[in-house]
Write a structure and sequence with these properties.
Elements: H1 2-13, H2 28-60, H3 77-83, H4 88-120, H5 127-133, H6 136-139, H7 142-152, H8 158-163, H9 173-200, H10 205-213, H11 218-245, H12 250-255, H13 265-275, H14 279-304
């Protein structure tokens, strides 16, 4: 008996930490290195295409815009000009317009996208065709969609013909804003719908069946089952759309060229950099726009807890 116990103790003492279920998995370090080197080319390309222009724009924002001479260092003068200087009125007006378009379009697209997702989540014939067809508006390039809707909102276009009106949609402030909001909602609501649909499909049918057996009606099932369980996908969809809307350029630029109080911050940046050849002031405007978008995304994630990485937080 003592011999058997001795052999067992020796086998336990000599057991390798690399047994299944213990220690580090074999080959994991190699997989991590392979993954790193596969990602390196993409990081290099992103650094060249994105990081370098961003850093160059930030650096250029601290210099003046004298044409034909070496730019002189002016410190924060370009930022002061935008925030509280002679061009502050234009900057803050564009700031308000940008947030008006962002809040309006994101709210409409979320409501419409939720309704579309709930409908596409039902079992019916040709459901796959329906899901594919709703992506058509989102797949159309924004510039092309803007031109199409500008034709539709022409005083002699189909919109006035259908409703029997004679509104000059791009000739005054609120008709122009309504036309831009409508075109952006039409284009992007399907994208939001598919993101929400992905969250709806992971909710087990048994949960709804149990709730129905307990007497919960459609409204209660939506409020107490659908919304809480689809919340991660919903918040990610809202975050993506908010970041995209804060950079809105194509639609107002093509619809009105920024006239009729539809100038967004992106239009202001392009106008200063390319139209007025003020690279320093344009760099300051683009940096302020970047900081605004970053702050909005950070506050959204911190306050609402949007899980954009897919990692679960431990309590």
């Amino acid at each position: 008996m003592s011999t058997v116990l001795s052999l067992r103790s020796r086998s336990r003492a000599g057991s390798s930490p690399e047994e299944p279920g213990r220690g580090r998995r074999p080959g994991r370090t190699g997989d991590g290195r392979l993954a790193f080197w596969l990602v390196v080319p993409s990081l290099v390309v992103l650094g060249i295409v994105i990081a370098y222009p961003v850093l160059q724009g930030i650096g250029r924002s601290f210099f003046g815009d004298t044409i034909g001479e070496t730019p002189a260092f002016v410190g924060i003068d370009n930022y002061a000009r935008a925030l509280w200087g002679p061009d502050s009125t234009e900057f803050w007006a564009s700031f308000k317009v940008t947030w008006f378009f962002t809040i309006t379009t994101v709210v409409l697209e979320t409501v419409i996208g939720m309704a579309m997702a709930l409908f596409m989540n039902q079992a019916f014939r040709a459901r796959g065709l329906m899901r594919a067809s709703v992506l058509v508006p989102w797949a159309i390039p924004t510039a092309v969609a803007a031109v199409l809707w500008r034709w539709a909102f022409d005083p002699r276009g189909i919109i006035n013909h259908l409703f029997g009106t004679s509104v000059t949609w791009t000739g005054s402030e609120w008709p122009s804003k309504l036309a831009i909001v409508f075109a952006d909602t039409w284009k992007t609501a399907p994208f939001v719908a598919l993101l929400i649909l992905a969250g709806l499909q992971i909710i087990p049918d048994e949960v709804y069946e149990a709730a129905a057996m307990d007497g919960a009606g459609p409204v209660k099932r939506f409020m107490y089952i659908t919304l809480p369980l689809v919340r991660p996908s919903l918040l990610v969809a809202i975050l993506f759309r908010m970041l995209d809307a804060l950079r809105m350029y194509d639609l107002p630029a093509i619809f009105t060229g920024g006239a009729n109080d539809t100038t967004t911050l992106s239009i202001l940046v392009v106008r200063a950099s390319l139209g007025n050849l003020e690279a320093g002031y344009g760099g300051a405007l683009s940096t302020l726009t970047f900081l605004m978008i970053f702050a909005a995304a950070y506050l959204f994630v911190r306050l609402l807890g949007a899980n954009v990485t897919g990692s679960d937080k431990e309590a």
